[in-house]
Amino acid sequence: MSAGRVSDTGMSSPRVSLEMGTNSHEDLLDDKSRGRCNRRTLIFTGGLTTVVVVTVVVLLLTLGGNDQGGNSSESKDPRPPFSLENYLDGNFSAVRFNASWVSDSELMYTNKLGELVLLDVLTNKTETLLTPQEDERLSISFVKQLSADKQFLLIAYDYQKKFRHSYYANYTVINLSTKVATDLIRPDGSQRLQLVKWAPQGNALAYVGNYNIFYKKAADDKDIVTLTNTDKPDILSNGIPDWVYEGIYYTLEIREEVIGDNTAMWFSPDGSKLAYITFDDSNVKTMNFPYYGQPDEVFFQYPIDIKIRYPKPGSPNPTVTLNSVDLTVPGSTVPVVLTPPAEVGEDHIITTVTWTKVNEVLAVWMNRVQNRMLITTHDASGSGSPVTVLDKQQENGWVDQFVPPKVSADGNRFLIISSQNQGTVGDFRHLTLVTKDVSKGAKATTALTRGEFVVTSIVGWDETDGKIYFLATSPNEPAQQSLYSVSDNVASPSDPVCISCGVRITESRLACTYVAASFSKAHSYYTLTCNGPDVPGVVIFNKNRDRLAVWEENTRLFDFMNSHSRPTSKRLFVDVPGGMQAYVEMLLPPDMDTSGNTKYPMLINVYGGPDSSQVNDRFKGDWGTYLTTNKSIIYAYIDGRGSGLKGDKVLFAGYRKLGSVEIEDQINVTRYLQDTFPYIDKTRTAIWGWSYGGYSTGMALAKDTSGVFRCGISVAPVTDWAYYDTIYTERYMGLPTESDNYLGYRDANLNLIVDNLGRNEDRYMLIHGTADDNVHYQQAMMLSKALEAKDILFHQQSYPDEAHGLSGVSPHLYHTLESFLDKCLDLPKRL
């Protein structure tokens, strides 16, 4: 280490573990770890030369069991195990942060009486904005947003889902002074809208209905300005994305984010202009599937044919057009088209848009296979050509820029997360400052952080104090996510400071090692959400890190968890080919005999998709919690090659060859666990997963020639990447053409290698919903045909009219999963 200073983390050295019962918060160490220091040093570099050493507590998650041959009856946990009903009934659910910052000191939230309230954290005074008695729709609304001038409240109700993030709803604006409500309508009188956005100043509104954009210069203005007037719903979409661009956030589903939500229009900083994208799906092919309806209704005598414009690898993508319209010119709604840079080609993708100034739009463009990105600025009037601010190409991988850059007040600088070289260990994603005007000798890009860790999110930029706030993992501990700050002064690099390290919701809780944060408008205050390892909670701080209030303790959940026996967690790194390591977590049953005299079944919960991660310090209360405590199953996760948060070398290991290295790691690391820990029953090990995890399960069973897994369950799996969508698949696989990666697609096709799924009739179970608009039911049917053609017996469960999440049949689903595992793993009946 060099002569860097130790940053002030404001923390002590608490005892930590994932065993959060009332019996012990002691560190859980195996024999090899005993005697080691329970602190780890984090090395950050601000700029290029200054080193800072930040000391934080590391979560030690290895279990020291009874090596003498089992636990005595006196040490048995007397608390009852969790039940399946605890999971299905939502007993593990935490109350989340239910407020939003509306100024630099004010939070808006709904109190226990259903009233909408403003809390000033500076004065601790509250103001009631609206009560259910004043407008009964408040109690059924799912959107509550205040106008910039705080004069009007927008509410949305009568929710009707369309795709994953898109929906139809009725919207109303309420004058908070007079309590007079005005329904937002389209010019044809319809109230069904798809999106409404406040302007950043005053109380103007832009909204989308029937895929067209409308504008009101004031919330209670009777005049509606029609900004677009296309008459091809579901083919031409303005201001909201189509299916493939809508995407999703990080979940345990396949990640295919582009726009990432239901928004594709953006006001300029002063509200005088609007940028929006038009999506033209004219050439996108249609995917059809039946909706069967209710069995007792004659209306469904014939199933309804659902049609979705869904591009699949190698087929036409939507054509996207970036537009700008001046809202200050009376009667003028003719948009200006902002042309893309020629370098990304005609078949390009636009991933995000923001404004840098009142007359300048910034857009992020990519080529179709997403290994080249250009960040450009455009004059909102359409004059001139786009100016390229950053041109980045990624060899042997893809470019990841799906979040809008955070732009400085003058519009001349912006922040992104970008891969930066860290020497022999390769590239890691770091906080990067981009300067538009390099004429004065400034560097175009400057890395503000450096080291073997990953910056995951930029949460604030306080230009007054010159501080940037961001979330990041810890070096050598990708399971943690903490809040840090660093100076934005590139001329005088400083040391990042860990702000959240050592924070606890209360003194009786464990230190927060997996957090999220939300800052007030001028960064004077922030809320810190502690998502684990203990029961989640929320605390309000000022920017000097003084604790102002505990917003949410989740006492009910804390007491509920501690009234039951709890699993403990053992984590370890396992070497895999290429000088890399897989990160493993095993959740172990309470009162477990680790001597090897008792053998325990193990279930691997696999995802395995690119840039995913399952081993983390988040609070866990799920199906696995039930299985470990109630049925004494070891429940394990393996983040192998291709997973995120461990650098680009690991991340890109499976590039253009899905179904290869990530599957090998699931098989070989599981075998390593079986051989290393005598308490694991080699003859009773299973694997299961959902979505990409369902694909990983099928591929693992297909490639497992040595009997590592006795059985497996695939829920809503991809089986052939040619059937999935373009944006996601081509990012990781390229095109399925002879000139590109046709052989890669064939090698990744589960349907072509099914022989090993039929070792016995209870080896494989396939589950899918027929109305899955994400991973189509076609995927399961093609695998079924392949298995049936080879006379391979297997279990299958189809859920009519259920989408990807199978949310309407949860009890039946988990009873089905459990029944299959009971038979496969010879499990006892649940308690």
Automatic annotation (TrEMBL):
InterPro entries: AB_hydrolase_fold, Peptidase_S9_cat, Peptidase_S9B_N, Serine_Prot_S9B/DPPIV. Residues 1-32 are annotated as: Disordered. GO terms for biological process: proteolysis. Coiled coil: none annotated. Pfam families: DPPIV_N (PF00930), Peptidase_S9 (PF00326). Gene3D superfamilies: alpha/beta hydrolase, Dipeptidylpeptidase IV, N-terminal domain. Keywords: Aminopeptidase, Glycoprotein, Hydrolase, Membrane, Protease, Serine protease, Signal-anchor, Transmembrane, Transmembrane helix. It is a single-pass membrane protein; Single-pass type II membrane protein. GO terms for molecular function: aminopeptidase activity; dipeptidyl-peptidase activity; serine-type peptidase activity. Residues 147-536 form the Dipeptidylpeptidase IV N-terminal domain. Residues 622-826 form the Peptidase S9 prolyl oligopeptidase catalytic domain. GO terms for cellular component: endomembrane system; plasma membrane. Residues 9-23 have a biased composition (Polar residues). It is found in: Endomembrane system; Membrane. Its main location: membrane. The chain crosses the membrane at residues 42-63. Belongs to the peptidase S9B family. DPPIV subfamily. This is Venom dipeptidyl peptidase 4.
